[in-house]
C-alpha cells in the first residue's frame, strides 16, 4: 500500500475514536473546543500539497 | 461481528497504476495493488501490517463506529452554534450591461439602491453581531454600474465604526484604474470573482453586452492583470455547458499562459444549470480533467482534496448570512435575489423568522448516501428546488484529478 497523502489525523482520531465526545445536545462550549482542535490542524499546508 | 469495516467515505478509482482510494472525510489518498485491493474488497483485514495501514488512513474503521452519524452531529452542531462574522450580499443595482442567457435573475424586477436604503441596510447589519466585523459581497446585476452607492455605503459603514472586508462578483467590464484604486483603498475588496464564458468570440456572444465591443475579452484579460498587480486576488469562474466546453478549454490554455506565474489569479470550472441537454456525469468529469490537466499551477485545484470536511454548503446554511436586493428585500440565498416569493424580510422591518427556514442541504437522503458528502455538504439548495443538479464542482475536480494519477 502506497500512501500518497496521509489522512488528516485530527479528523480521523476525532471521528473514529470508540467513544464519540459529542452528541446533538452538546453545548456550545463543547462544540467550540472541538472546532478549535480541528482548526489547529486545518487543511494541509500549501507546501505539502505542492509536493504531491 | 467483524472488528473492522470499510469507511463509508472511500471513493475508489481504478487506474493502470493500481487502485486509488481517496477518503472524502479524512482527506487521505492511497494506492493499493491488485492483491491488496482484492483483500480490501473481500473485507479481509487479517494481516496486522495491512490492517494498521488501512486504519491509519481511515480506509477501514472500527465496526462499532457510525461515521455518518458522527459527521452529521459535527455538521449539525456547526449549524446550530457557528456564529462567525456575518456575511451580507448586497446588490447596489440589479441592472446589468451584459445579457447572459443563463442569468438566474432574468425576469426579476430591476432597480438601484438609494442613499436611504444604505442607512437601512447598515441599521439591519447593526442588529447582527458585528463585533468582529462583517463580510460584504457586492453582487448585482453588475455592481460596478452603481459605484457611487458603493462609495456612499462603505463611507457609512466606516462612519458607524463597522469594520468590513469585501468580495465583488463582477463581469469586469467596468474595471479601470479608478475602480481598482477604490477597491483597494475604499471598498476593502480583497477578492474579485469574474466569470469567463468562452474565448473571444464565444465570450462576446454569451455576454451579449449592451455596448458591443469585439475586443472586450482581451481588454478583460488586461484588467485582470491590473487588479492582480494591485494585490487583489482574482477568481476566474469558467462557466461551462455542452455548447461552450471546447471554447472553455482554449480559455484555460490561454489563462495558463497569461497567469501562470501570477499567484493572485486562479481559475476554476463551474457547470451551468438549466441546459436542455445537460452534460452527463462522465462528460463533466472529462471536461474538468482536461482543464485540471492544463492548470500547471495545481495548487488551488489540489486544495479541493485536502480541506477539512465542510460544515455547510454555502451562505444558505449559515444563519447570519443574508442577501439584499436593490429594493431592500432580504433573502437567505443569493440565487433568490429579486424573487419576492422567496424573500424572508425587508431592511425596514428585518427578517421574518417564520420565513427564514434553513436546513443543511446535505441532510437530503440522496446526499446522505453520497460518498462526496463531506466535500459538498449537499451543494446548492436552490438547484435542488429547481430540480437541477445541486452537486458542487469539488466532486468533479476530485474525480478528474484521480484520473490523472
Number of helices of chain A: 3
Q: What's the count of strands of chain A?
A: 1
The geometry of chain A reads as elongated
- Oligomeric state: heterodimer
Low-confidence stretches of chain B: none
Q: Tell me the Rg of chain B in angstroms.
A: 23 Å
Percent in helix of chain A: 40-55%
Class per helix and strand makeup of chain B = alpha/beta
- The N- to C-terminal Cα distance of chain A equals 16 Å
In N-to-C order, the SSE pattern of chain A is EHHH
- Main sheet of chain B? 10 strands, mixed
Q: What is the H/E string of chain B?
A: EEEEHHEHEHEHEHEHHEHEHHEEEEHHHH
Q: What does the radius of gyration of chain A come to?
A: 14 Å
Strand content of chain B: 15-25%
What's the pLDDT, averaged over the residues of chain B?
Answer: 92
Q: Which structural class do the helices and strands of chain A define? A: mainly alpha
Taken as a percent bin, the fraction of beta residues of chain A is: 5-15%
Q: Biggest interface: chains and residue counts?
A: A-B, 32 and 43 residues
Task: Please tally the helical runs of chain B, counting DSSP H or I stretches of 4 or more residues.
Answer: 15
Question: Would you write up a description of this structure?
Answer:
The complex is a heterodimer of chains A (52) and B (405). Chain A is built from three helices and one strand, in the order βααα. The model of chain A has no long low-confidence stretch (mean pLDDT 77). Chain A is elongated, with a radius of gyration of 14 Å. Helices cover 54% and strands 8% of the residues of chain A. Chain A has 52 residues and is mostly helical. Chain B has 405 residues and is an alpha/beta fold. Chain B is 37% helix and 18% strand. Chain B contains 15 helices and 15 strands. In chain B, the strands form three sheets. Chain B has a ten-stranded mixed beta sheet with strand order 11-10-9-8-7-6-12-13-14-15. Chain B has a three-stranded antiparallel beta sheet with strand order 2-3-4. In chain B, helix 9 runs parallel beside helix 10 (281-294) and helix 10 (281-294) packs across helix 15 (393-404). The longest helix of chain B has 15 residues, at 67-81. The radius of gyration of chain B is 23 Å and the shape is globular. The chains are: A mainly alpha (52), B alpha/beta (405). The A-B interface holds A 1-8, 11-12, 15-16, 18, 20, 22-24, 26, 28, 31-32, 34-35, 38, 41-44, 46, 49-50, 52 and B 18, 20, 23, 25-33, 36, 50, 53-54, 56-58, 61-62, 64-65, 67, 70-71, 73-74, 76-78, 80-81, 298-299, 302-303, 305-309, 405. Strand 1 of chain A pairs antiparallel with strand 4 (28-32) of chain B.
